[in-house]
Amino acid sequence: MNSCILITSHLNTPDKVEAGIxxxxxxxxxxxxxxxxxxxxxxxxxxxxxxxIVKQCQYTSDNPTTLGxxxxxxxxxxxxxxxxxxxxxxxxxxxxxxQLNYDYVHHFNYDVLLEEGEYERLLDVSKTQDFIYHxxxxxxxxxxxxxxxxxxxxxxxxxxxxxxxxxxxxxxTSGWFFETWxxxxxxxxxxYSDLNNFSDIKFKLLIDN
Length: 209
Prior knowledge:
By secondary structure, this protein is of the alpha/beta class. 33% of the residues lie in helices and 23% in strands. The protein is built from seven helices and ten strands.
């Protein structure tokens, strides 16, 4: 198994850049650190690009919304749905990992920080090569941290991305958002017969989204 770490990012504020650097500092201290592929839809700072553990960076200026500029309504506010931009960036990263012959990917959002000892445990549990993820309630998958075979992620999501852009995933839960769509895509695609390989890897988010 040829594995890597894929970090997706949108480092458009000093706090986000600081979080991204803190994450890289954590990884740099680990034994057996995997190659890191860093992608973003906001320019990636030179300080990030120059970390020796970062093997390749790719930036896109695309930050697309959906066809009708879908709005997400929360109990406290209404916000633009940039889930399609997140999906597009993750897919860009997975295609890059595929081109570089990495067949298994540990995906991290730029602000995910593992607790001490959890990196080694993540490498151990991923030896099954299964899809390892944290559920988000009953009908969603946490997109901040998951591990999966590269091609299986592409197979499950790329052919269905148009449903997100067009705002019409068939049979999806009302009030859906990106994490809901992600679970829906895996169920709809049938790439896995079940989605029960939950992760208990402990982490925190450095940025409160």
